Amino acid sequence: MVLVIGGSYQGKTGYARDNFPEAKYFNQLHLFVKKRLSELKKPYEILDEIREATKEGTWVIIADEIGNGVVPMEADDRLWREATGRILVELAKDATEVHRVVCGIGQRIK
Amino acid sequence: MLTLIYGGSSSGKSAFAEDYVCRSKHRNKYYLATMDAKDEESKARVEKHRSLRSGKGFVTLEHSVDVYEALPEIIQIDSGDFSTDATGPHSVVLLECMSNLVANEMFRDGEINSADDTVEKILSDIKELNNERISLVVVSNNVFDDGNEYDVGTKNYLKALGQVNEEIAHLADEVYEVVVGVPVKQEKEA
Predict the structure, then answer these.
(1) Shortest CA distance from B154: residue in chain A
(2) What pLDDT was estimated at residue B83?
């Protein structure tokens, strides 16, 4: 599995398509986490589900980095931010490659 | 020796900072906690961090302001026979987290200090801690990339933290940004 991360609107999806044209995509992972949290799933259950879904074949997981801001006022937003961060740290350990995209330019960091 | 470890919320920066400290040989390892935990959520965070570093041999020191006051405590402990690894040349201090320290110094004793005064105060304390008997590792937070507009108080805080980060990066021997748990070493110009 390859993990592609970066801020929003940085060209992550285009970068992934250019570099991994044959792969299957799990895009907007941060929003998937938000949806599952709203269904009262625990972060480890969400991580298990993502791992299960991307078990077979070559996958590229794409997510926004949402942790680089001021602490949100709402408790749910803080939980979402933390869960997404922790899940991404675990997925980065699983990943064979991690790429970070800034202004459409990717840097392989793992 | 000064190291800056920078990253967003839940980016894995603490885990990396602890590994970084534990990889090198030191006389004693100190964890300088700056969070002034008043509410339940903060207390839970403190507990979580405590359990994550338990068994790693850190001595915890708590200073939510005036971090230079940790120095006499460190000297006293180092002068006793408490070394966890006496082969190391120095002790190491892991200061976590700069974002709390800036808030605590800026909003202290019922007053609001200016960004400039806050930056000056913190840098002076950090320089005092960063002496020849100590390796200092500072963990700081990227809170700058959400694109939101904030009130003037928050802006002043962001300005102070940004400037502290910049100055510490300038003084530091090594700077790392931690991204999804992956340390990205920032090359400093010679």
Answers:
(1) A70
(2) 56
pLDDT of residue B98: 97
Instruction: Give the domain ranges of chain B.
Output: 2-185
Contact B10 A75 (CB under 8 A): no
ipTM of the complex: 0.92
Q: How far from A11 is each of A62, A106, B77, B111, CA to CA, in Å? A: 11, 9, 52, 44
Topology of domain B2-185 in CATH is Rossmann fold (3.40.50)
> Band of the pLDDT at B49, cuts 50, 70, 90?
confident
Region B86-115 average pLDDT = 90
Note down the domain range covering A27: 2-108
Task: For residue B146, give the nearest of A68, A75, A85 by CB distance.
Answer: A68
Phi-psi region of B180 (alpha: psi -120 to 50; beta: other; left: phi over 0): left
